[in-house]
From TrEMBL:
One of its GO terms (molecular function) is small ribosomal subunit rRNA binding. The gene is rpsT. One of its GO terms (biological process) is translation. It comes from the Bacteria. This is Small ribosomal subunit protein bS20. Keywords: Ribonucleoprotein, Ribosomal protein, RNA-binding, rRNA-binding. PANTHER family: 30S RIBOSOMAL PROTEIN S20, SMALL RIBOSOMAL SUBUNIT PROTEIN BS20C. It holds the Pfam family Ribosomal_S20p. GO terms for cellular component: cytosol; small ribosomal subunit. Binds directly to 16S ribosomal RNA.
């Protein structure tokens, strides 16, 4: 796991308010409490390990979700430009990424299949 940096709370923040946490991946966790506070709340070693695993999994899933959204945006932009060859190439690159994320549980499999199907239909319509 990497380093976790904690931002300082603003002066007007109430005591015990959630403080944004920047995870090792550089992603700022929303509505997260300070890592040290979570570890203080955990009473057992297994609970402390679980919080570490959850934090690592959250960082990975956030990165996966962001990567998939980037691929989908590239397909949308190619469709908007009207270039069928570029749109088809972008869709071929996006589909495995989307299915991989669905396999890891970041997205539901039906949602991934639905998105691929609808994008393929739009790409096909460009050639007509």
């Amino acid at each position: 796991m990497g380093a976790v940096s904690i931002e300082q709370p603003s002066l007007g923040a109430p005591q015990g308010a959630p403080v944004p946490v920047v995870l090792a991946s550089g992603v700022k966790a929303r509505k997260a409490y300070r890592h040290e506070d979570i570890l203080k709340m955990a009473n057992t070693t297994s609970a402390k390990k679980a919080t570490r695993k959850i934090e690592a999994r959250t960082a990975k899933n956030t990165a996966r979700r962001s990567r998939v959204r980037t691929y989908l945006r590239k397909v949308e932009e190619a469709i908007a430009s009207g270039d069928q060859a570029a749109a088809a190439a972008a869709l071929r690159a996006a589909e495995p990424e989307l299915q991989r994320a669905a396999g890891k549980g970041v997205f539901h499999k039906n949602m991934a299949n639905r998105k691929v199907s609808r994008l393929a239909k739009r790409v096909k319509a460009l050639g007509a």
